[in-house]
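Lab channel / #folding
Pinned by the channel admin:
"Please post every new chain as: sequence first, then the structure tokens as a reply. Keep commentary short and put observations after the output so the thread stays searchable."

First post following the new format, from NK:
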Amino acid sequence: MNLPAFAAVPLSLYIHIPWCVRKCPYCDFNSHTLREDLPEHAYVQAVLADLEADLPEVWGRRINSIFIGGGTPSLFSPESLHELLAGVRARLPLRPTAEITLEANPGTVDSGRFAAFRQAGINRLSIGIQSLDDAALQALERIHDRQQAIRAVEAAQKAGFDNFNVDLMFGLPQQNQAAALRDLQLAMDLQPPHLSWYQLTLEHNTKFYRQPPVGMPDDDLLWDMQQAGQDLLARRGYAQYEVSAYAQAGRRCQHNLNYWQFGDYLGLGAGAHGKLSNAQQGAVRRYSKIRHPRAYLQATTGFIQEQQCLDEAALRLEFMLNALRLVEGFETHWFVERTGLSLNSLHNALQTAVQNGWLIIKAEHIQPSAEGMRFLDELLLLF
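Reply from TO:
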């Protein structure tokens, strides 16, 4: 492959904090119920050692965004997060406008804690509300209720966060369309600049997959919910820019955009995943770090658990898997610059997609049609 432009690929940083108060029954992320005191200082030091090991891969590159996810990162003290971010800044150059996001659970925060997070360097929050209906929250086994969720958003605003996301689900057990839209309306009334509104799915390796909840909506109802919800979001000024992401003007999540545009990202922390392009080696490498927190903390000779270089077929698929989630699609030069492949390698699949009415190709731009977004799985199978 010819990879001369890899140096221009944007770079982000993902940091995983794997502990939760309680594991949610729908969650397939690397999260672990907290059964003892948080080893905050030890974990921060391990993450910084992990970063030290990765530094030779990214010399001379700036970080555009940082996302601290989990788990429940808001369990960590503001002091520990300050120590973590100060350690990152000492080792890597950050752009002055870097977006630094912290995931927060409404059951673990208050206004004083949010204010301290801001002082630690966090400038964006992602608040995992999931629902504003108490019965739904109980069915999801969340540790917060409706009032705690509302107070968490109000506390974030009071602390000065003018850039934050609210996570909200639809397609919940026993939920009808009116209930889903009521949930969405209540969330928008809180005036978050960004909403992640997405369907509950029964993922492998989860309690809900092994024991599906009663009353899950069928596909027709889910489609009706989605269509009605998207209309409501648009009327309230939330523009859809990705499958499940909606934002007010100027409030798109820069970190997630980097994923969808097939940018690079360092992954630090237990079970974190990363993707890095190497112009000298002519390769794109994916890797994951040691998964279990205890083993990660005990690591002394390296933190990588698995890694692989992507072949041409995997590069084509992974690029399209991400870029076609974007409503606006992608510039064709991104594909060339970020995979090292010729656009001709997509020719047959692109032609079929256009014939099916799933893609729109104009000059140097490719985007999914409305029908393509509806049948996204089928569209991606072409690649």
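NK: The chain has 15 helices and 17 strands.
TO: also worth noting, The mean pLDDT is 94.
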